[in-house]
Amino acid sequence: MAGLARGVAAAALLLGMTTLGLAADRVVIVLDASGSMWAQIDGKPKLEIARESLRTVLQSVPADREIGFMAYGHREKGSCEDIELIVPPQAGSAAAVSAAADSLKFIGKTPLTSAVKQAAEALKYTEDKATVILITDGLETCKGDPCALGKELSAAGVDFTVNVVGFGLTADEGKQVACLADNTGGKYIQASDEQALQDALVETIAAAPAPALESAPAPQPAPEPEKPEFNFMPAVVLAEGGDPVTEGNSWEIYKASSDGTRGDYVTTEYGAYKGNLEPGGYIVVASYGEARTEQKITVEAGQVYKPLVTLNAGTLIIHPRPSEGADVADGAAVVIAYPGVATPATYYGDTKVVLPAGDQKVTVRIGQGEITETIPLTAGRIVDKDIIVGVGHVVANAYYIAGGDKADGSGIGFKVFKARRKIDGTRQEVAHAYGPDSKFDLPPDDYILTATVDLAVVEQPFSVKAGEHQDLKVAINAGVLAITAPGASKIEIFDPRKDINGNRKSLGYAYDEKYQAALPAGDYAIVSERLDNSSKESTVTVKAGERAELTVQ
């Protein structure tokens, strides 16, 4: 709490300096909403830390500060085009920026280079002084070049700056995006935890240049004319008779075309909106969560309009759990096919969302387990529900011998098959993973685990019960063979036994002078080949749980 107080106090001091002198730059905040923001710092998802830190700092921003908000990776998985200017740069937008950040889904990729460029264009950086503040927890994943973009924007801009906050990046990762700030005269700030992120946001969002000293007092501004009364004050409710929604909702306003369809875009506002509209016809789109509706209005001079919009929606809260009494699975996928949607939305972990009233088809996936339920949702009601997928958790490791060393190098893989064979004699593959401590969430059933360590492969049957946690320790009865063949172009390992045609089975090879691999205990023939087509052969015995070293001269 003391750190938070210091951050807020610093923001207040810097903002006070702004009000004494020059107006602050026009700013667009670009927030990384990619799926990696679900990672945790001190037990708390980074996305929640970012939302709370933004809200804390923005509360002290003066109303005349022009701030916009852009996000990427918040609507589609795997898309490099998922970039949206949610709040255009404008005065008094702090609450709208906080609300927009709270509504993001955090599911996609990291096209940070394109996002910064679009933010610069939204600020008309070639005409006016402008600043972009990028908050990212990852590196570019869409082939953009942030360093080259920084030089391009600096050369074309009037007075353009990019400040970059690396949230949870390592020092080496930070160097790959710091150039975007360096090349535009901005700052790169490393933020490793919640307090560091708040301090960074104070320094980038709240800070403004010190006022220039003047030789004579500035003339007093002429008194502003009295502002007109608000003529448009809409309200939105989930159901008839419900309380108005004042946070998290949005209003999109368009001019109405002559045929009654949407015409030119006018504005997007958030929360309890009050504004002034010129006389004319408009289409007002009210949105909250996944529920939205539109209403046509005609504004006449001198009239005040207070339309009440009913969304006919309710709130669905889903807690996905692997088994009865288990904690919520943060990585669980929650897919909701709500009324009127063509492509179902996907959420992760605890899910709370406003949806159009009706039957909600909810599918929850945890590992290889999946369950679908249809949940009726009435307008104005809240449905809070646990969905139990019914899986057991398995952690698989391979050991060279029972009670021996654990295999922890490369070349380790695990496959899970249904134990019962299909009619053609094969087994259905269920899941696979690589490396030590491979994790599987599986529905109750009998399975076969295939463990592979280099050239050693073994099978082990196991069974899964819902809610059961088990460590599978697979003894592969193998050792490690390290071969050195100076001057060789290829090393190949053979089964020393010949088949009826006199041929030996090749088990593995490497185009190198050295080759190391895990092998089942037994005898092997080793052949080294040189570029002049000459070869040498040797034999070796590999013992389970031991290392064998062989030099082929």
Top keywords for this entry?
553 residues; alpha+beta; Rossmann fold; Immunoglobulin-like; 5 domains; six-stranded mixed sheet; four-stranded antiparallel sheet; 7 helices; 35 strands; 16% helix; disordered N terminus
How do the strands of the widest beta sheet line up side by side? Answer: 5-4-1-6-7-8
Instruction: Give the CATH H-level superfamily of the largest domain.
Output: von Willebrand factor, type A domain
What Rg is obtained from the alpha carbons, in whole angstroms?
31 Å
The CATH class assignment of the largest domain is: Alpha Beta
According to DSSP, the number of beta strands is 35
The percent of residues in helical segments reads 10-25%
- Number of DSSP helices? 7
Query: What is the CATH topology descriptor of the largest domain?
Result: Rossmann fold
Poorly predicted spans:
1-24, 208-216
Q: Main beta sheet, described?
A: 6 strands, mixed
What is the average of the pLDDT values? 89
Global geometry: elongated
User: What portion of residues belong to β-strands?
Assistant: 35-45%
Secondary-structure-based class equals alpha+beta
Domain module tally: 5
- Quote the distance from N terminus to C terminus: 69 Å
Level-2 CATH architecture of the largest domain: 3-Layer(aba) Sandwich
Protein name: VWFA domain-containing protein
Pfam families: VWA_2
Domain VWFA: 26-205
InterPro entries: CLCR (IPR051266), VWF_A (IPR002035), vWFA_dom_sf (IPR036465)
